[in-house]
């Protein structure tokens, strides 16, 4: 009798393990949860340590640093005065994000999420290539680019829809759409006039007095790259499981 119990227990255990594909670090939020917003908030916050280091088994890269694709800003289009290429972009501090507001909406197609996030401090490093006239200065050169941004505050909407992949439902997100407001920003273009340190200092001073103007030029590119990366991370997670597993 005791043996039978043991066998049944082991069988139940095996069945449960086989069906429970969601790893323990992902907290599942049932669709009928009375406070879905709070549940998803907790779920994301509990996932933070994994997000910082990355989740190799789901193909999610680590957030620290956040590596972004090359940003090309072309002075020919959109009335931009700045022609810059930023390559080898690394963003530090993204994991310090705070979710100020999160509103999930269940739709016919799946889920939409509206969220309001603040990152208190971001440090960006890159290599720049600049060929511009800005603020009456002829800026031409290349070298390391550094920027510090405080209160990187964005409001986004992420639309998710159910897709069928190999007969199973998954939630897939479209690229999220965001508005961005930032606090203070400081920028350093290193080695801009390498052979003329006085001019380099003067130029960087002018640039910093107008750091907001400069950052406004590169903001759409940075925002697009960050939004794309976050959408990729969200999709890596949601597409690894079925819709029913994630939102029972
Ligand atoms: C949901 O939870 C949050 C945070 O715990 C709380 O502020 C909010 O009032 C709750 N909403 C409802 C409808 O219970
Ligand atoms: C940026 O890169 C593009 C293509 O790689 C190049 O054509 C352009 O001249 C570069 N712009 C600057 C300012 O270096
Ligand atoms: C950014 O902040 C760090 C310290 O937090 C400082 O060492 C660095 O000089 C700052 N860079 C810029 C471009 O302001």
Automatic annotation (TrEMBL):
Matches recorded under InterPro entries: Haemolymph_juvenile_hormone-bd (IPR010562), To_sf (IPR038606)
Signal peptide: 1-20
GO cellular component: extracellular space
Gene3D superfamilies (UniProt xref): Haemolymph juvenile hormone binding protein
A biological-process GO annotation: circadian rhythm
Superkingdom of the source species: Eukaryota
Keyword line: Biological rhythms, Signal
Keyword Signal in annotation: yes
Family of this protein: Belongs to the TO family.
Protein's UniProt name: Uncharacterized protein
Species of origin: Pyrocoelia pectoralis
């Amino acid at each position: 009798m005791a043996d039978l119990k043991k066998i049944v227990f082991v069988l139940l255990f095996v069945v449960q393990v086989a069906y429970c594909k969601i790893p323990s670090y992902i907290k599942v939020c049932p669709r009928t949860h009375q406070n879905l917003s709070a549940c998803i908030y907790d779920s994301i916050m509990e996932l933070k340590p994994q997000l910082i280091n990355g989740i190799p088994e789901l193909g999610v890269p680590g957030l620290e640093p956040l590596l972004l694709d090359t940003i090309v800003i072309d002075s020919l289009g959109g009335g931009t005065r700045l022609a810059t290429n930023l390559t080898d972009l690394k963003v530090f501090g993204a994991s310090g994000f705070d979710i100020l507001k999160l509103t999930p909406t269940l739709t016919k197609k799946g889920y939409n999420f509206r969220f309001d996030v603040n990152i208190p401090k971001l440090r960006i490093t890159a290599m720049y290539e600049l060929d511009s006239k800005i603020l009456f200065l002829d800026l031409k050169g290349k070298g390391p680019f550094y920027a510090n941004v405080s209160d990187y505050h964005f409001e986004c909407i992420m639309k998710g829809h159910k897709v069928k992949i190999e007969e199973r439902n998954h939630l897939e997100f479209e690229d999220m759409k965001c508005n961005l407001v930032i606090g203070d920003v400081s920028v350093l273009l290193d080695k801009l006039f390498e052979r003329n340190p006085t001019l380099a200092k003067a130029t960087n001073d002018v640039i910093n007095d107008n750091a907001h103007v400069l950052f406004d030029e590169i903001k759409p590119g940075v925002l697009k790259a960050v939004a794309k990366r976050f959408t990729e991370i969200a999709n890596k997670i949601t597409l690894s499981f079925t819709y029913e597993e994630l939102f029972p």
